[in-house]
Design a protein that fits this description.
- Strand 7 and strand 8 form a beta hairpin.
- The protein is 18% helix and 43% strand.
- The chain has a nine-stranded antiparallel beta sheet.
- With 373 residues, the chain is of the alpha+beta class.
Amino acid sequence: MKFNVEGKAFQQQLQAVSKVISSKNTIKILDNFLLCLEGDRISITGSDSENVLTAFVPVMDVEGEGAIAVPAKRLLEITKEIDNQPLQFYINDDTKEIDLRFLNGHFNFMGVDANDYPVRRELPEDCLSLQLPARMVLKGIENTWFAVSTETSRPVMTGIYWDIHEADVTFVSSDTHKLVKYVNTEKAPGLTASFILPGKTSNILKGLLSKDDADVRITFDAKGGLFEFGDYFLYSVFINGNYPSYNRVIPTDNPFSLVADRVSLINALRRVNLFAPKSSNLIVLNLQPGEVHLSAQDLDYGTSAEERLTCEYEGNSMVVGFNGVFMVEILSNMQGETVVLSLSDPARPGIYSAFEPTEGESLVTIQMPMQVI
């Protein structure tokens, strides 16, 4: 087996695929890339047994075809040190010896029999399929990724919930402290379904997708799904379980509204956060007509901070506590110059939304309050 490949493109795709490979694989063969030569392109596959990512690279001067598993760490190190040079691969199909040649030298190392590499699960013929614009999928993940839980005690919360309706796709994530619901109606899916995409898979998709990509074709059943876009195929096993009824958590009657400049509020919170207790990050908001008074106090160190911010506030005077770090996180993941924080009383969640929503999109984030001592 022999082929030539452009070094930079090959190295970039190796880097992309390496993100799916686990640093602690229980199956030794998964420490390798699977290279498959077919016609005028080579596929690079990596897997952690639950996610399988395949990237494609064009090749030239091809002789033969076949597959071989190559140690991922070694191949990454080699291609990183060869500065954007054409690469020539000569692979002995019998001994699995690899001779990798570049302008001023060559490397010799051993590959592994490709027959030992696990085969990706094939989806049944009656599976569901839809095609969505890449920017629609990317926005869904970007707007919800930060609220995915890392607590493995509740597996269903460690992914992004895709609630697919005839006319829209709703993306939901929650770590119980905050919940994000993002609805996009850019393209009607024309079907009703749902699944929970693992956090790792969502992060990989976020890193690979581009707003310039055309569409993402998603083929799936109850167990897993295949995402096809650009030069990539990404298969993922879905998280098994029932996602909580997210609409029941979102308050329907929050009559009091704080309207503020988003960046100014973020900057004020960051300053006050410096003196918040590290154990709770509690920030106290004292809401008065025309302004919000931010304060934090760390009794263990005898420190405190206060700051006033001009804003528009309609409602009763109120003192409410929130985790300041989470507030900054929520506001930083929103768009637009002005943000609205809707409240009802200090014991109920606050609702963040955009002052001027983007057409075809709806983003609602709720944050649970904290007790003010």
